[in-house]
Amino acid sequence: MSLTSAVVGGDPVAAASAVALHHANDEGPGFARRRRGKGFRYLDAGGKSVRDADTLSRIRALAIPPAWTAVWISPDPEGHIQATGRDARGRKQYRYHAKWRAVRDEAKYHRLVAFCAVLPKPRAQVEGDLSCTCLCKRKVIATVVALMERAQLRVGNDEYARQNGSFGATTLRDRHATFTGDTLELAYRAKGGVGRRVRITDRRLTRIVRRCRDLPGQRLFQYLEGDEIRPITSNDVNDYLREATGGPFTAKDYRTWAATLGAAMLLCASEHPGTERGCKRCVTQVLGAVAERLGHTPTVCRASYVHPRLIDDFSNGKLDALARQIRRRLGKAPVEVAAATIAVETLRAIEPVVARYLDLTHARRRA
Question: Which of 46, 75, 76, 107 is 20 to 30 A from 16, comparing alpha carbons?
């Protein structure tokens, strides 16, 4: 099994082995951390203090926050997980091996190629389920997925909603939605306390969301099952996407793809400045625009959402050359299609994948 297929397919054991790491988990023996004065001491599985200089240096390099409790540290310097613990809010946190972080980040972008290839499948599924006349579970999930793709909404997490008062698609409340004719406006506090306001003008989606809002209860996205009213959850959405795509794809893939596609569209529309300083300024503006669209910071956008090769190819002029080549090949194709092709080919997609995406996207836009 290749590294990319192992990570995309969700096989951490095979992925760790592929980069000469060992799969690790905190259910096995490990080092514990105990408070000592203003610092900490570390105990092995037998309760003895860890004194090996190299091991202590590795542990300190992990920079485990002092506030973490129930800390477990891998005794194996080549374990893919190096440490776990609970933060001040009781949430489980991880420290990974540097090799694993690099491999996971790279595989995430290769995963986009596979996601791009199957994207027409969930789009077709959503289109079919939206046509259902009743307010059933599949119709409401399809509405959530359509909004996630159109407005780059996070899927939502009940724990975040309870503890932080921050919301995503599945945890939105009725008060977050307002309607003006065929326009739906969602205004809410997103992850990290960022205020988000998105407007979507679409008669069908607005009508469905209005029907959801009119159901009893505070949750916006609910459905009817017999005489019962039930809420849509993030698990419902991800199960729907896995079934529709036939792969291990989730709501987060939509946001990663939206960031990469958005950056490709803006970079290709930007004239190359001709200087290193000008390129940096242009990239900063593009990342800022994409980050605002997704509701996070430009730093996070650059680190976790837009592949560095896309930025490098813009800076060295390769992206401009690729864009001209693709525009000649595609003729009068929509800008989104050209940008999607550029993004995918930049991520080393194979030609059949790109062709399939273009054919199905053209068909969707003509419909």
Answer: 46
